[in-house]
Description:
The protein has 454 residues and is α+β, with helices and mostly antiparallel strands. The chain has helices at 3-47, 70-81, 85-98, 109-127, 130-143, 172-175, 179-189, 193-206, 238-251, 254-271, 303-309, 313-330, 356-368, 371-387, 412-426; strands at residues 52-53, 60-61, 106-108, 157-159, 165-166, 169-170, 218-220, 226-228, 230-231, 272-275, 278-281, 283-285, 291-293, 295-297, 336-338, 343-344, 389-390, 393-394, 397-399, 404-405, 438-440, 446-448. Residues 114, 239, 299, 354-356, 412, 416, 442-443 line the site of 1-deoxymannojirimycin.
Amino acid sequence: xxxxxxxxxxxxxxxxxxxxxxxxxxxxxxxxxxxxxxxxxxxxxxxxxxxxxxxxxxxxxxxxxxxxxxxxxxxxxxxxxxxxxxxxxxxxxxxxxxxxxxxxxxxxxxxxxxxxxxxxxxxxxxxxxxxxxxxxxxxxxxxxxxxxxxxxxxxxxxxxxxxxxxxxxxxxxxxxxxxxxxxxxxxxxxxxxxxxxxxxxxxxxxxxxxxxxxxxxxxxxxxxxxxxxxxxxxxxxxxxxxxxxxxxxxxxxxxxxxxxxxxxxxxxxxxxxxxxxxxxxxxxxxxxxxxxxxxxxxxxxxxxxxxxxxxxxxxxxxxxxxxxxxxxxxxxxxxxxxxxxxxxxxxxxxxxxxxxxxxxxxxxxxxxxxxxxxxxxxxxxxxxxxxxxxxxxxxxxxxxxxxxxxxxxxxxxxxxxxxxxxxxxxxxxxxxxxxxxxxxxxxxxxxxxxxxxx
Length: 454
Ligand code: DMJ
């Protein structure tokens, strides 16, 4: 056979395999869309005037005394991304007509920010419906009282009607997870004050880091004194680091990058733990650097994504491998494991349908194009269908060992878990979404990049 003919055959085979693989990932992405619609239709049918639908009983559920449109707003950009335009338009119409923030309820400013302000801003960018931007702005305005401390670090809760604040003991995540949404609000409204509040809080925390360049787990926002010196990358600290690196990428404010550059070596020195079961990030005291726990969990699985964004691809790949081992221990990941013993920590057996491990697989696949991240996503998706799917949606699992379900489907299941699965499989198809000009907030709502910094 002539060499040229052989080349043609090889090329056809290669293209054939490539197309075939792309098709199979396309069909996985389509399956995720099907599950999104299944969950959405149940929400719509059974809980339209409420925040969420309970996946086992089909009962409606509100976070507070009255609805804050949690599923509607958290799911909205996902509906558009997956092509469910009519469903999306229906939500926009409903929000524009009915949404109102004049409610006598004390709410978590952090959750309202990442889910509602984030979701309204990204949906505004998609639809260009100005009323969504107005809803985001008027909601942020009702949160402003939380920033009234002398330190600049926000209180945790605010009454949306009266502006009364509470929650003096807070944590880095709830203090330092505003700049993506509030910076975007400044960009879209031309009012710099939103960026200012968020940045002041980030800097206030940074100024209170230990001499080892670590932060603790809880702090008094009035006095600025640490109330827990436990340092880790888990819940309560996680998105503080995420917002430094993402905030820099989004706004090119060098101050944010400089802060991250001070933390990163300290995190690697005191928290990174290379043991027989893999690379992990455990717990240490922020002042002494002494290891306190060999714990890692479902929430911590966001960190490979942060490592990818900060350029540490090797660290990200190692850590994601560990995360997948954690998932495969019981074919659903628990809230916390002891990675030295590779055992679930007592009292932390639940899996709340969290997205972080998928989010990290998505970032890693887009940077490496390594098929193994698609295979990870496939295994996770199949386990979700097997162990979490119920009559009216997907249910959290209260114990990954017994697989006993709980009657809750958090709104981040729409905003993040299913969305990141969809984006992961979509990324393997020829006409995939491009997010080069966007940064996802911690609830997976994409925000457009813009230069704000110095
Ligand atoms: C989400 O609400 C956000 O990602 C937040 O930063 C912490 N994790 C939950 C989902 O697990």
